[in-house]
From TrEMBL:
Natural source organism: Streptococcus mitis
UniProt name for this protein: ATP-dependent Clp protease ATP-binding subunit ClpC1
Superkingdom of source: Bacteria
Location of the AAA+ ATPase domain: 50-194, 326-497
Database matches in CDD domains: AAA, RecA-like_ClpB_Hsp104-like
Record function comment: Part of a stress-induced multi-chaperone system, it is involved in the recovery of the cell from heat-induced damage, in cooperation with DnaK, DnaJ and GrpE. Acts before DnaK, in the processing of protein aggregates. Protein binding stimulates the ATPase activity; ATP hydrolysis unfolds the denatured protein aggregates, which probably helps expose new hydrophobic binding sites on the surface of ClpB-bound aggregates, contributing to the solubilization and refolding of denatured protein aggregates by DnaK.
Gene Ontology terms: biological process: cellular response to heat; proteolysis
UniProt keywords, alphabetically: ATP-binding, Chaperone, Hydrolase, Nucleotide-binding, Protease, Repeat
Length: 616
């Protein structure tokens, strides 16, 4: 462009980015991959008689701007119609006009449009987030609507532009403005498939290799695509995969490493999500191998629930579940202390190698209608939502909604969107994806029915198929007295937990004592015990109403203080010691006589006995 020509477009020169010039300086950096059809559609639309202003519609990160850059490159390479070959593509950021300089937003915007009209056939304007021109400039200042400036010009065919926006904003703003919508031709830009994204990154990786002076393996490219899909669900391909590649290459280059592989991609993702690298690098089959054993080791007496959870997760890992919803959703029904919460914790550890990969909410804290803001945030106070923020930080996690019956009905209804659409809108209007979460809802509704059934016919697992079906129907009726059918129908699996019988409670006691034994090893201590201790803990630590919940309290108050006190009295902490526990004394009888049972123990160092010590 000559100096004389530049003088007639001072506002375009100052406030727009000349994409044609930018692309010409380093054309290889602006090669667009996998979007030939969209670039062709832009050209075709510009050549139409009517509705000849293309608007690229797609989510952030799918490559809308890259398509415009690709079109500018096509002009430079003379790969367009002769009618378009003299166009200069200019990108306008509306935010660059917001200062009061040069008369403020509206004055500058009008000048830019006037210059576009004067240079029709020479300049093509690109406006990203074009929906913002509807009401841009701020109505509170009494400014004119920028849309009302540009619509008459477009209707008279005095200039052309390319717009870009998201699908939601296109529907909400552009389609509602009929005068603007009549001038625009939407071109849908969908997110590429994983296969297409891998091809795009493969073709573009040389640019990153040259810039960072590293090599990037094909395995790293594929890893970036697959892991970004799994662990960054609220962003879109190919942009989110490019981000992983770029950051991994930056780190490798900075640290003097010349190669980007799968491990380096996983490290970047760990920094972004907090998910351990070992978990990230596990394949689906490896993740599922041994899951049932892991769950059964922690949760006793609930084989049917464990099997159902493992089967559901297997379907999800195979990708055969409804892709619009969370990986899976469960309602755990049962009395207190039977393992509902423990199974949720075990699943978090089994799936993600981290018991902390659980987002837990006690719904007794959400009894009021206004408590919804605790979960999704409050726009007025700018308070962030506890649920939405935690899922943003840990998009791959177990969400435990504990004792849901205690929450306000409108708080419960909030989860309809999560269960049905796999997303939730926070107070800022941002959608948070729940597609990589496992939602577990627990309730004590129907507990009395379960206890009565247990006393009459035994545990749920012992019922005939006919009795099971009848009992499940009666439990559903019980649930419908508290929850709306719309909520219940969106939960994929409703699992009834068994009451804990004596045999199962003994298994739980042995498990908890084994955990103590493991902790004692770190202190060079060993532990053994007699059956009398198990019998005692079974008696005082379990009951029908609370299951095994009191057991942890009894062990904490009666067993651990005994061991801890004696350990602190030992003279040589470098010595290995062995504790042996048992119980003596009479238990209370039908006359409610005082419990005379006492825990006794002895401690030995090598072959030297420290004698008997009484503890009660």
């Amino acid at each position: 462009m000559t100096t004389e020509e530049k003088k007639k477009t001072p506002y375009l020169d100052r406030y727009t980015d000349n994409l044609t010039e930018k692309v010409s300086k380093k054309a290889e950096d602006y090669q667009v991959y996998g979007r030939d059809k969209e670039v062709e559609a832009v050209q075709t639309t510009l050549l139409r008689r009517t509705k000849n202003n293309p608007i690229l519609v797609g989510e952030a990160g799918v490559g809308k701007t890259a398509i415009v850059e690709g079109f500018a490159l096509a002009i430079l390479r003379n790969q367009v119609s002769p009618k378009l070959k003299n166009l200069t593509v200019r990108s306008l950021e509306l935010s660059s006009l917001m200062s009061d300089e040069d008369g403020g937003f509206i004055v500058k915007f009008k000048k830019i449009i006037e210059e576009m009209v004067e240079t029709k056939g020479e300049n093509l304007l690109f406006i990203d987030e074009i929906h913002t021109i509807v009401g841009a400039g701020g109505s509170d200042k009494g400014a004119l609507d920028a849309g009302n400036i540009i619509k008459p010009v477009l209707s008279r065919g005095e200039m052309q532009l390319i717009g870009a926006t998201t699908l939601d904003e296109f529907h909400e703003y552009v389609e509602q403005d009929r005068a603007l919508e009549r001038r625009m031709q939407p071109i849908m830009v969908s997110e590429p498939t994983t296969t297409q994204a891998v091809e795009i990154l493969e073709q573009a990786k040389a640019i990153y290799e040259s810039f960072h002076q590293v090599s990037i393996s094909s395995a790293a490219v594929k890893q970036a695509v697959l892991l970004s899909v799994r662990y960054i669900p609220d962003q879109f391909l190919p942009d989110k995969a490019f981000d992983l590649i770029d950051e991994a290459a930056t780190i490798c280059s900075t640290n003097g490493l010349g190669h980007v592989g799968k491990q380096e991609i996983a490290e970047v993702l760990k920094n972004k999500t907090g998910i351990p690298v070992t978990t990230i690098l596990k394949g689906d089959k490896e993740r599922l191998d041994g899951l049932k054993e892991k769950l059964s080791r922690r949760v006793k007496g609930q084989d049917e629930a464990v099997d159902a959870v493992v089967n559901a997760i297997t379907v999800a890992q195979a990708g055969l579940q409804d892709q619009r919803k969370p990986l899976s959703s469960f309602m755990f029904l049962g009395t207190s202390g039977v393992g509902k919460t423990e199974l949720a914790l075990a699943l978090a550890e089994g799936m993600f190698d981290d018991e902390e990969a659980i987002i837990r909410f006690d719904m007794s804290e959400y009894k009021q209608k206004g408590d919804i803001t605790k979960l999704i945030g409050d726009r007025q106070t700018r308070t962030k939502g506890q649920l939405t923020e935690k899922v943003k930080q840990k998009p791959y996690s177990v969400i435990l909604i504990d004792e849901v019956e205690k929450a306000h009905s409108e708080v419960v209804d909030l989860f309809l969107q999560v269960l049905d659409a796999g997303r939730l809108t926070d107070s800022t209007g941002r959608q948070v994806s729940f597609k990589n979460t496992i939602v577990i809802i627990t309730t004590n509704i129907g507990s009395q029915k379960i206890i009565k059934q247990y006393e009459l016919k035994g545990n749920f697992k012992k019922l005939t198929e006919r009795d099971k079906i009848q009992f499940e129907k009666s439990m559903t009726l019980e649930l419908e007295t508290k929850f709306r059918p719309e909520f219940l129908n969106r939960i994929e699996y409703k699992l009834i937990f068994n009451m804990l019988d004596e045999e199962v409670n003994k298994e739980i006691i042995v498990k908890q004592l084994s955990e103590i034994q493991e902790r004692m090893k770190n202190k060079k201590l060993t532990l053994s015990y007699e059956e009398s201790l198990v019998t005692y803990l079974l008696d005082v630590g379990t009951n029908i109403k609370d299951g095994a919940r009191p057991l942890e309290r009894v062990i904490k108050h009666k067993v651990l203080p005994l061991i801890s006190k004696e350990f602190l009295n030992l003279s040589d902490f470098n010595q290995e010691y062995h504790f042996h526990l048992w119980v003596e004394g009479d238990a209370p009888d039908e006359h409610h006589r005082e419990d005379k049972r006492e825990i006794l123990f002895e401690v030995e160092a090598k072959n030297k006995s420290f004698g008997e010590v009484l503890f009660s």
